[in-house]
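Progress narrative, work stream C.
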Amino acid sequence: MLSLALPLAVALVALAMALNLVRLVLGPQLVDRILALDTLNVNAIGLVVMLGLLLGTKAYLEAALILAMMGFVGTVALAKYLLSGDLIE
């Protein structure tokens, strides 16, 4: 059952990433683009985890943790820049 559900989930997450990329490019405001970038990061983490499940290795789970940390820091930095106009006060 997992051999059927996992490729389907990968395809659906890839579709979600494509839709997020469209929102990232066409977003009318900067806030929409930051939100699309954060959502794209979350989808990339899910895709890496599913790839790790498909290949049966734990290295991809560590890569997903690094992606999560970098995505969080990036989102916070962009939000701070949006609020104050400067990253370092």
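Work stream C, second folded protein:
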Amino acid sequence: MKKELISKTIIRALIGAIIGIAISIAICLISGSYRDIINHPGAFVAQVTGSALLGLVNMGAMSIYDIESWGLVKTTVIHFIISFTSFLLANTLLGWFERNVLVIVIIAFVSVYFLIWLIQYLVWKKEIKNLNNDLKNMISKEEEGDRHE
């Protein structure tokens, strides 16, 4: 189980890094800041690297949800702390948002995080309900079969 968790974490982290790089490049292209690459290639590399690391940390941290001995609250709180801290650190090091905008961004971050968590929770709750219903149906069909024998 431990090797499987480590493998999943590495794969998720690498996917997160790729997504981070793609988002960083897309923002660069959309914002028109790609023209600055010629004058400031180090800044571009720093932004892409920071985005890759942010994606790597956040997607890699998703693996804590696979630790079955931890409850949902514990995993959610730990994942949120990792995600939020890495975001604040990246923002501080790379200067993504000014202080007056940062409060709005933090509110948006927390809101989006909660919304994604809520959607996932409701999806899994429905899935569990469906699995339980399927299990009940299987049991009642087995009991019915036993009665006819």
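DSSP finds five helices and no strands in the chain. No further action is required on this item.
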